[in-house]
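Continuing from the previous page...

OK, I double-checked the sequence for Nitroreductase domain-containing protein against my notes and this is the correct one:
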Amino acid sequence: MRAPADIPTVETDEAAVLEHLLATRWSCRAYQDRPVPEETIDRLLTIAQRSASWCNTQPWQAIVTSGEDTKRFREAMTSGARNNQPKFDFDAPAEYPGVYRERRPVSRSTTPTPTTRPTTTAQSGHP
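Thanks. Re-ran it with the corrected sequence; updated structure tokens here:
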């Protein structure tokens, strides 16, 4: 583990790029009916490999299709989502006791978050 003095500070322009990316991100609700170039898919998958995973579980699964395979896959996924309840590998924690709670940041907002939500309201393992 590196000491804080050994960790370089973020350059202002790098922080601005990250801020812009996070501020302008959005969740797509509809898709265009045109194929994504293979080079774009390869680049996105390479970049995605660098993202963090919860508890280092590395839950990556990628299915890349084209043409009729995409149509069949889309139909199967839609049918599966409509007809089945989701199944999780393990439940999310309902609370963070002891040092784990102490390590969690304090929320600056008044909106309930996992750090501010009363643990007594958790009815299921999925907050």
